[in-house]
Amino acid sequence: MTIFWHRRDLRTNDNAGLFAALRKEKDVQPIFIFDKNILEDLNSGDQRVLYIYQHIQALKKAYNEQGSDLWVFFDQPINVFQQLTKEHKVNAVFTNRDYEPYAKLRDEEIEKLLATQDISFRTLKDHVIFERNEVLKGDGTPYRVFTPYMNQWKKELAPFHLKSYPTEKYFNNLNQSKEISELISLKEMGFSDEQTQDFPPIEASDKIIKDYEKTRDIPSIRGTTRMSLHLRFGTVSIRELCRQGSKNEKYYNELIWRDFYQMILEHFPETADKSFKPKYDNIPWENNEAHFEAWREGKTGYPIVDAGMRELNATGFMHNRVRMVVASFLTKHLMTDWRLGEAYFAEKLLDYEMASNVGGWQWAASSGVDAQPYFRVFNPTSQHEKFDPEDKYIKKWIPEYGTSKYPEPIVEHKKARQNAIDTYKEALK
Fold first, then answer.
1. Is the model's pLDDT at 160 over the cut of 90?
2. 242/227 Cα distance (integer angstroms)
3. pTM higher than 0.85 for the full model?
């Protein structure tokens, strides 16, 4: 038997690792593990777990229709593989690569276990177009600035990189199941099966991609594809989305940013919780708890910031333009450590992906790769006036806006801006 381990690739179509397993092996048994190491840190109502569960149900049905099955486990991965190798003669394990620090440590542990039994552990590239060392500078070092990386990315791109893997051609190599296993319930794992947040459609709109430059910065409308959730969990193929997105260069470049941040996290895993520019860890953050609470609750007195935070808390989503504004406000106006904001987003965002989230927060805090200079501080009022001039977005999320119930600003923009610039300048001497 050969195992194919689904992780951040919850689909059967255009799946690099599944394709490789099915093409090379017979009796391929797909599995999925609800990883206790990850789930134990989540609250019982976390909608991401429900989203995954719904797609596991769909995956299981798809395999059942092929006469096979998806085996689903709720445990630590090392325990699952100890059990599988004890109960079955496993020849090989295939999976798609995951680039986050925990995932890499987990995979090293699994690979060592399998090696003791002469079982090969094959990992494939599926989550990105180009990974760690595939787009490098001429001297062999990683890019630290996006634009030259993007240019080289486009030079390296060949039709093969965007071609789909035809997994369906080899479905007859799936392990055939006489009995269908029972799927563990969410409640058995300690999670709610109540859906409280909407999940965006899994298809990207051609119209949104076509009009992307005109609509991407307007938070009051559906002007972005909202595909980040599906890319995060691999319910859509990045190759498929790149083929579709190539019709608009601006949108296409956003997908390249995603590869860029994944590459940075792989080369510099310490940046998950340390500044990419080490001297920026010398900044004396104020970390005022009352200010941080006002930011979290959307009660700072700055409408564009508050609307964004309320949207996040209610829906698990925040418009990308607003993400930049609220991150800049927390790190510059409130002088709060970017790691606190990053952790809050990690808790709340449906589409949370470490590489992009850390990259975005360090960009806002000026401590990251290709970040804005420290003296650039977004003015939340002018951002409001520019991108929501008719207050449509503001009024949707702040019903008390314009009344005495809406709070006064917790800091004054000019003073806060100058304080941030002075503090950064002194710390970076």
1. yes
2. 11
3. yes
For the chain, what is the mean pLDDT?
97
Please list, residue by residue across 385-419, b when 16 or more beta carbons sit within 10 angstroms of its beta carbon and e when fewer do. eebbeebebbbebbeeeeeeeeeeebbebeebbeb
Residue 25: is its pLDDT beyond 90? Answer: no
d(CA 188, CA 267): 38
> For this structure, is 285 an active site residue?
yes
| CA atoms of 365 and 327, how far apart (whole Å) | 8
Q: Which residue ranges are tagged as binding site?
A: 212, 224-228, 251, 254-261
Pick from 375, 376, 372: which is nearest to 427 by CA?
Answer: 375
Q: For 341, phi and psi rounded to 5 degrees?
A: -65, -40
71 tagged catalytic: no
Question: 111, 131, 173, 257: which one is catalytic?
Answer: 257
CB atoms within 10 A of CB 243: 14
361 counts as catalytic: yes
Q: Would the pLDDT of 177 be above 90?
A: no
Point out the catalytic residue in the list 253, 288, 313, 320: 320
> 428 to each of 1, 161, 424, how far by Cα in Å?
57, 42, 6
For residue 5, indicate whether it is catalytic. Answer: no
Domains, the chain, in order of start with CATH, read 1-126 (3.40.50.620), 128-162+205-267 (1.25.40.80), 271-427 (1.10.579.10)
For range 322-347, the mean pLDDT: 98
Please compute the mean of the pLDDT values over residues 190-210 and round it to a whole number: 96
**Over residues 255-274, mean pLDDT:** 96
